[in-house]
Write a structure and sequence with these properties.
The complex is a heterodimer of chains A (245) and B (320). With 245 residues, chain A is of the alpha/beta class. Chain A has six helices and seven strands, in the order βαβαβααβαββαβ. In chain A, strand 1, helix 1 and strand 2 form a beta-alpha-beta unit. In chain B, the strands form three sheets. Chain B has a six-stranded antiparallel sheet, with helices on one face. A three-stranded antiparallel sheet of chain B has the order 7-9-10. A two-stranded antiparallel ribbon of chain B has the order 8-11. The chains are: A alpha/beta (245), B alpha+beta (320). At the A-B interface, helix 2, strand 3, helix 3, helix 4 and helix 5 of A face helix 1 and strand 5 of B. The complex binds adenosine-5'-triphosphate (ATP). The site of adenosine-5'-triphosphate (ATP) has 19 residues of chain B, from strand 2, strand 3, strand 4 and strand 6. Chain A: This is VWA domain-containing protein.
């Protein structure tokens, strides 16, 4: 049985970026490096600005991930649903690539008759449960997010509860932006459980800029740092799913 | 603009026919039954027969749910979920949909039924549900997203049925879909690993929901809050021992909870029988209250008889 690792960035934000690189471009870069970018847009009391919404969708689209805009109260369920959907999507991509190899150039799961599709899906489900998962959570802590942070924290604990019921291993890391001196601050390095999320998390708040692009870029560096040696060994950089020995 | 950016909403007008790409079956849409995060369910006509058709633009949802329905239908004679009739794709212009046709379960939603027919039915329906869950668990599945909205009561014979198998998960995996109020993880009372006690927690919360139709928000969470809500509610209070066991994962099998619920019904009767303390008090009580008490006692006996009658009918139905 092969063991792989899925890599995701989960961006939680409530609005538009206004500083540094284009976040959509940074998401495209992430995708090229085998990291999916998912975005959750936390709605400001009933109003949703078109521009922010568009950015949220574009980042996920470019990043090969899933996006969802929600009210604060719905956050817990959404965070875990988005993460799972994105996992399934990634795994389906992997399975599709294998199908193409076995069955010829243009065959995807959707092209199979429903009965065969069911069998292939069992493989996806199995992988979904056993695959290892690295999620880097990137939280916007700009002033307007201030009151939402306790809920974000709860949603993250809930996410680790859900994912830790799987057979595969999970690693989480938490970054917040904007940082005091830099664009982004690392709050927690890779850990199997989010229970240890520092309590200062709920009280974080920083004014001014929203450097979403630079934050994604920095998050990506955190992934590649760990993988630099292995990255040199695998010529094929565009795999979303990395097989390890 | 919808809040949900995962799906693009679609509407199929009544009277429209959809034809499967692979099996060429034709379904005539009659009306929309409901829609959720993963698709729309329509009532449709197929070969003069009423069927329910679930349509989604995400073929993974359809594949996943039909896999479960197929596995469930292998379990013969057990009709927990709707039976699966057909799986196919429907292409219209450049849009592609996947769908499956299933048995149309005609009835009333669980809470509505209880509201209309009375609390007497709560125990009966829960007993039915628990024996269905027992067989589901024995086949290696956990229902997952168990909640009143997913329970339909069919009339004559009154029977509880589950719809929406989207959350049904193989034992040992992590629960696929859940609803916070009925999820033990949300209340801080256990993991989201698929095991029988996960479903039994939800069953307990369904009983709680019957007495709190509007549900209630999590405050401190944990067993403290739930116990408080149970004890302070008339009628619900009497279930306390069973609910506490289910909520804290003490039942490992549905049949254990079922047995407790059954024998508890009988115990209740014994308690209310006019035993010594009651007799001793009679002389000092005004006649009116005595009458009331006898009436209450008769009522309990009557309810008990009705429950046993329905129950034996149910058992009989199961055997027959
Ligand atoms: N087999 C069936 N027979 C009769 N009615 C059905 C059947 N299946 C579904 N329905 C009706 O359609 C509604 C929507 O069903 P469905 O289970 O797809 O979605 P949901 O529970 O609302 O949400 P989700 O897709 O997010 O799980 C149900 O609440 C029910 O009223």
């Amino acid at each position: 049985m092969k063991q792989g690792t899925i890599k995701q960035i989960l961006l939680i934000t409530d609005g538009c970026s206004n500083e540094g690189e284009d976040p959509v471009a940074m998401a495209a870069l992430a995708k090229e490096q085998g990291v999916t970018v998912n975005v959750i847009g936390v709605m400001k009391n009933d109003t949703i600005d078109e521009q922010g919404m568009k950015e949220i969708e574009s980042i996920a689209e470019q990043g090969g991930g899933v996006s969802q805009v929600v009210y604060t109260e719905m956050l817990s369920q959404t965070v875990q649903m988005v993460t799972r959907k994105a996992m399934t999507q990634t795994l389906q991509g992997v399975v599709n690539r294998e199908l193409k190899q076995i069955l010829g150039s243009e065959t995807e799961m959707e092209d199979l008759p429903p009965e065969k599709r069911g069998e292939v899906f069992e493989v996806v489900e199995e992988l979904n449960d056993t695959v290892n998962l690295d999620v880097l959570i990137l939280v916007d802590t700009s002033a307007s997010m201030k009151y939402k942070l306790p809920t974000v924290k709860e949603a993250l604990l809930d996410l680790s509860l859900s994912l830790n019921a799987r057979t595969g291993n999970n690693r989480f890391s938490v970054f917040v932006f904007p940082g005091k001196k830099q664009f982004v601050n690392k709050l927690m390095d890779w850990t199997p459980n989010l229970d240890t999320l520092p309590s200062i998390f709920s009280k974080l708040s920083s004014g001014g800029m929203t450097p979403t692009g630079p934050a994604i870029k920095e998050a990506l560096r955190h992934f590649t740092k760990k993988r630099s040696i292995r990255g040199l060994l695998t010529a094929n950089g565009d795999e979303y799913f990395e097989e390890s020995v | 603009m919808a809040m949900n950016t995962l799906k693009s909403p679609f509407n199929i007008p009544n009277g429209r026919c959809i034809e499967g790409k692979w099996h060429k079956n034709r379904y005539k849409i009659q009306k929309e039954l409901g829609r959720g995060a993963n698709g729309v369910v329509y009532l449709a006509e197929w070969k003069g027969r009423k069927v329910a058709v679930k349509i989604s633009d995400n073929h993974l949802t359809i594949t996943s749910e039909t896999n479960v329905l197929k596995a469930l239908s292998k379990a013969q004679g057990i009709a927990l979920g709707p039976s699966l009739l057909d799986v196919d794709d429907w292409e219209i212009g450049s849009r592609k949909f996947s769908f499956y046709a299933m048995e149309y379960i005609e009835g009333e939603h669980f809470l509505q039924f209880i509201k209309r027919k009375g609390m007497v039915w709560l125990d009966i329906l829960i007993l039915q549900l628990l024996s269905d869950l027992q067989s589901l668990h024995e086949r290696g599945w956990i229902f997952g997203d168990l909640k009143p909205d997913n329970l339909i009561v069919t009339p004559l014979p009154v029977k509880i049925r589950c719809i929406d198998v989207g959350g049904t998960t193989a034992i040992g995996r992590s629960i696929k879909e859940f609803t916070e109020f009925f999820d033990r993880g949300y209340w801080g009372l256990g993991s989201r690993r698929a095991e029988p006690s996960y479903d039994l927690f939800s069953v307990a919360m369904i009983i709680v929901n019957a007495y709190y139709p509007d549900r209630f928000p999590k405050k401190i969470g944990g067993i403290q809050q739930l116990q408080k809500m149970i004890v302070q509610k008339n009628g619900l209070h009497k279930y306390e021992p069973i609910l506490l066991r289910a909520l804290t994962g003490k039942y490992h099998q549905a049949k254990e909870m079922r047995l407790d619920l059954l024998t508890f019904g009988q115990k209740k009767i014994k308690k209310n029988q006019p035993s010594r303390p009651l007799k001793a008090k009679v002389p000092s009580n005004p006649p009116q209250s005595k009458q009331k008490r006898t009436a209450g006692w008769l009522e309990t006996i009557f309810i008990f008889l009705i429950i046993s009658l329905f129950y034996s009918l149910y058992i009989f139905g199961q055997i027959g």
